[in-house]
Amino acid sequence: MRADLVAGLTILAVSSALLVFGGFLPLSALTSNRMGILWPLVILSVLVLLSWALVLLSLRKKGLSEEPPQSSAARRKIVFRIAAIASYIPLLSIFGFYLSAFVFSLVLPPLLGKAKWRVSAGFAIVFTLALWGLFGILMRQTLPVGYLWAAFLPADW
Amino acid sequence: MQELIEGIVLCLQPLNLAALAVGIVIGALFGVIPGLQNITALSILLPFTYLMSPNHAFLLIIGVYVAGIFGGSITAILYRIPGSPENMATTFDGYPMTQRGLASKAIGTAIFSSAFGGTVSIVIFIFAAPQVAKVALQFGPIEYFALIFFALSMVALIGTSPIKSLISVLFGLLAASVGLSSVTGTPRLTFGTDYLTGGFDVLAVMVGVFAIAEILMRITSGEMHALKATAKAASSFPSMSEVRAIWGTLLRSTALGCFVGVLPALGATAAALMSYQVERKLARSGSRFGTGEMAGVAAPEAANNASVGGAMIPLMTLGIPGSASAAIMLTAFQIYGLQPGTSLFTEQRELVSVIYGGMFLANITLILTGLLAVRLFSRMANIPFSFLAPAIVILCSIGAYASRGSLIDVVAMFGFGIVGFVMERVGFSVSAFVLAFILGDVLESSFLRSMILFDWNPLEFFARPFAAVFIVSAVVMLIWSCVRRPLQRVPGVL
Asked: Is the peptide bond before A26 cis (omega within 30 degrees of 0)?
């Protein structure tokens, strides 16, 4: 159970790091007016114990069936797809909401499936206009402007 | 009962009715599309409820909650692919009915059973909730701590690995503890940043771990294409003689579903599977189960919808959600500054009536929706996921941004999306994480307040009979879950 071993070790490392660098130590800091740190301290301590247990159990189960290993091409495809989804954050912060929504809904369908660019363009136009109508006009919702346009907009926008 | 009638009258006002109808349509659509669940729809919609009045917001949520559980039965019957985990048991006899040319009868049975189970459970909820709320009036921080501790311990009973379930709960509690302590005001795990001082935004967390993680799961599994139809979608209700034949099944499954819904951490999927197993064992024609038995469709559909009414009892009286979907509803209460419990029933009578009426009407409307729109819904399952994915990501981003107007919340949403995705892949429980995250603050504050009352002597918990029973039960369950043979993993159950 390699995944369990990696998960156990990761949780162990992260909880230990949080215990050390999270402001819980030294324990003498646990005065009556700082009792608020008791709760996360207890949680992290139990997490450390349970992650040890997970590591030990995964070592005992060594050799049991694993998922078939993925080919490097399949793994690359997965990483590429996750990166494509995550690219929305920089798009949003640079181009603002509506332009990033248009670009994202135009580019993602062909990247994820076998959508034709023409269909994807039609979808992007209709979807972006629907978003503008719903959130911009109907709900008057304030949405991210983006660094690119912020410079051209009045200060009180 | 008076509240129910008042609620129905209020719900029939045009805008209220529109909110309920929109919720039902959205819920049914998300239920129908495999890979998307009603919890995904709820988490996407939740941030937008900020813009609505409480009545409209709760009717929208109720519509999604009720219809989402039913929607998945259409694809379960027509394609053998449950739209949501709650409908997995429906495939066992629903698809064989389709193969025998009885697809419309199977869909009709699913609609009738869902509406029956849902409606009866709402009536039970309406009668039981005020009584439980009166008992809850006696509860102080000590009892609340014991009750939530018990609820979260139940999570360890489900799934193949109790350790992973417990770790998921602790993750949720840890994430909830980030920021200022609600009792002492001490900053925890903030690392000097302003963002973390305010704690994680509950909406960013919810949308991330449910919706974004769901998208990541789907795109990494490569399921991007539409389903292929195997039968024409239509619905034909069971005749009177057929209803008489499944009457006992409907009553037993509704009772079981309602009871399972009350229990924390189990939810609609467990209710559906348990009732199917019970009916299969009770049936005289037991061997016909799995080959297209009408009772095999009625049992899971009545039970999964009945679990909704059951889950509402601890949610509205004690503030303890019975499932992840109920946890989203609890967040909606928090958004409006409402505290579930006796005060909700005395100070928010109109809202409580609207919730009663909305749930009742949503179940009745299921019949109309099923009759009129079953073909449309079945076609929605044909939308390629490559188009749905960007649309959902964009809507989620608006939701995460809108709650506090901060782009960091959008980043946090993606971060929690990756956390949810990894948890799901490695076999941890996302639902357990969310239940613990939602209940974390109340658990901590009731623990600290109890300890202050007890002058830091934890043994005092055992001097209170109610608290002692729940704490001892929780500890026994935790020990038992660690020593027993793990239960068969059920997809979608915690």
From this structure: yes
Contact A40 B188 (CB under 8 A): yes
pLDDT digits (tens, 9 = 90+) for B190-217: 888 888 888 898 888 988 888 888 888 8
C-alpha B193/C-alpha B482 separation (Å) is 39
| Number of domains present in the structure of chain A | 2
Question: With contacts defined as CB-CB under 8 Å, which chain B residues touch A127?
Answer: 391, 394
A138 and A112, same structural domain? yes
Residue-range definition of the domain harbouring residue A88: 72-150
* Residue A66 counted as domain residue: no
- What is the rounded distance in angstroms from the CA atom of residue B399 to the CA atom of residue B207? 8
Compute the distance between CA of residue B410 and CA of residue A97 in angstroms, rounded to an integer. 12
Q: For B121-147, what is each residue's pLDDT tens digit?
A: 999 998 888 888 878 778 888 988 998
Return d(Cα A19, Cα A6) in angstroms, integer: 20
Of A115, A68, A57, nearest in space to B225 by CA: A115
Cα–Cα distance, B137 to B128 (Å, whole number): 15
Q: Are residues A144 and A91 in the same domain?
A: yes
> C-alpha B64: how far from its chain's center?
10
Per domain, the residue ranges of chain B are: 2-483
Whether the model pTM is above 0.80: yes
Task: Say whether B261 sits in a helix, a strand or coil.
Answer: helix
User: Predicted ipTM?
Assistant: 0.89
Which of B188, B224, B405 is nearest residue A113 as measured by Cβ atoms?
A: B224
Q: Three-class SS of residue B241?
A: helix
Q: How many CB atoms lie within 10 A of CB B251?
A: 14
B224: chain A residues, CB-CB within 8 Å: 112-114
Cβ density class A104-143: b for 16+ within 10 Å, e for less: bbbbbbebbbebeeeebeebbeebbeebbeebeeeeebeb
How far is residue A122's CA from residue B158's CA, in Å, rounded to a whole number?
Answer: 46
Q: CA angle at residue B310 from B306 to B315, to 5 degrees?
A: 140
How far is B346 from B422, CA to CA, in rounded Å?
43
Three-class SS of B321-347 = CCCHHHHHHHHHHHHCCCCCCHHHHHH
CA–CA separation, B374 and B379 (whole Å)? 9
Q: Of B164, B384, B390, which has the smallest distance from its Cβ to A105's Cβ?
A: B390
